UniProtKB/TrEMBL annotation:
<dbReference type="Pfam" id="PF00702">
    <property type="entry name" value="Hydrolase"/>
</dbReference>
<dbReference type="InterPro" id="IPR006439">
    <property type="entry name" value="HAD-SF_hydro_IA"/>
</dbReference>
<protein>
    <submittedName>
        <fullName>(DL)-glycerol-3-phosphatase 1-like</fullName>
    </submittedName>
</protein>
<dbReference type="InterPro" id="IPR023214">
    <property type="entry name" value="HAD_sf"/>
</dbReference>
<dbReference type="InterPro" id="IPR036412">
    <property type="entry name" value="HAD-like_sf"/>
</dbReference>
<dbReference type="InterPro" id="IPR023198">
    <property type="entry name" value="PGP-like_dom2"/>
</dbReference>
Length: 233
């Protein structure tokens, strides 16, 4: 089925802030860490690192705030707290209903997250294991050797697309869901259709340039606008 927006055959989801309500966890933990050094981690900094590979994000925080740390030190200190909280994170509104709908309708779906496999498993294997089993495959950019450059480079989504059965689909038939500016730029750089669902705290000055659909929640998404099967009434 073709619609006014195109004909989508495959869908790739980001995770943090898009499927899982984890961005506020990252924000609280990193805010607490940098406060020890008399610094402030706020929404003028956070959008710049969202979606990036973990080590690259840590290096940017250090550079922007002039912290006396190495990326490994910052990540280790953050992990001390994140590892305790991640197993109890919640889904974002509309996430499970959309994922289950697409899977039920036979649409190939995948995940491409900036997280490492270790952190991805912490976030998903306690409360959300069954839902994440529905994905054809998972790409964890921070620990995947095929990801040479993290978001906003296209690798995160080109690699994910290449791993679908039958080879890589036409990029114009792939729909990316993202909450982070870097992730949107990654999807667009991969020449894929992109839906942007930003955190309401994100200043519009951080919205990326380019052509994408802007929504406030996954609950707003209308599958048939993209040639995908409609929700059953």
């Amino acid at each position: 089925m073709t619609s006014k927006r195109g004909h989508i055959t495959h869908v790739i989801f980001d995770v943090d802030g898009l499927l899982l309500d984890t961005e506020k966890i990252y924000f609280e933990v990193y805010s607490s860490i940098v406060a020890k050094y008399g610094k402030s981690y706020d929404w003028s900094i956070k959008p710049k690192i969202m979606g990036m590979k973990e080590e690259s994000a840590a290096q940017m925080i250090i550079d922007l705030l002039d912290l006396p740390l190495q990326p490994s030190q910052l990540l280790r200190e953050a992990a001390n707290e994140l590892d305790k909280i991640f197993p109890f994170c919640n889904l974002k509104p509309g996430a499970e209903s959309l994922v289950r709908h697409l899977h039920r309708e036979g649409i190939p779906i995948a995940v491409s997250t900036g997280s490492s496999a270790y952190h991805f498993n912490l976030k998903t294997q306690t409360k959300h294991k069954e839902m994440f089993k529905l994905f054809h495959h998972i790409v964890c950019c921070s620990s995947d050797s095929d990801i040479k450059h993290g978001k906003p480079a296209p690798d995160a989504y080109t690699v994910a697309a290449n791993r679908f059965d039958g080879g890589s689909p036409n990029p114009q038939n792939v729909l990316v869901f993202e909450d982070a500016p870097n992730g949107v730029l990654s999807g667009l750089a991969a020449n894929m259709k992109t839906v942007f669902i930003p955190d309401p705290r994100l200043d519009k000055s951080f919205y990326p340039s380019g052509s994408y659909q802007l929504l406030t929640s996954l609950e707003q998404f209308v599958p048939e606008e993209w040639g995908l099967p409609a929700y059953k009434q």
